Amino acid sequence: MLRTKPEPDVEKRHLTLEAKMAQINGDTAQKQINVHNKVVKHVMDLVNTAREEWETETASRTNQPQTCSNSETEVLLAALGTGKGIKMMPGRAPPPGPSPTIPQQPPPQMPNTSKAVSSVKTNIKAASAMNPYGR
Questions:
Q1: If 6 and its partner were Cys, which of 11, 20, 81, 82 is the partner (CB 3.0–4.6 Å)?
Q2: Would the CA dihedral through 77, 78, 81, 83 be positive or negative?
Q3: How confident is the chain (135 residues) per 10-residue block, as mean pLDDT?
């Protein structure tokens, strides 16, 4: 819908601003305009200075040599994930894990004297048995 007349609250605000504008004399208005322009110019200078600094920082970062290699990263990931390319060094112990030639024995149990043996037995009921609505 095309409106040719502003909404009532917008029109009221516009009339209020026009009345305020009519009360200010020309010298005061010009001073306010000059102060406004000065503030805007200062803000623009700050923005331009920051932009120039960011651009020089970005340019200096692109001139740095690359510190990583995609192929080396892929080789490292393959070695860590699948063991590809890992060789046993002579004189080194085998990696921990099950060995086919040595039977696995459970480690000896050490008596734990720091904890008291509990003589209290608990009876935990299922949550469904405790439901008062009996579904």
A1: 11
A2: negative
A3: 84 94 91 97 98 90 80 90 82 62 56 59 61 63
Q: How far apart are alpha carbons 6 and 26 in whole angstroms?
A: 28
pTM: 0.37
Per the rule left: phi > 0, alpha: psi between -120 and 50, beta: everything else, 7 is beta
Nearest by Cα to 75 from 87, 83, 63: 83
Burial label, 53 (beta-carbon count in 10 A; 0-12, 13-18, 19+): exposed
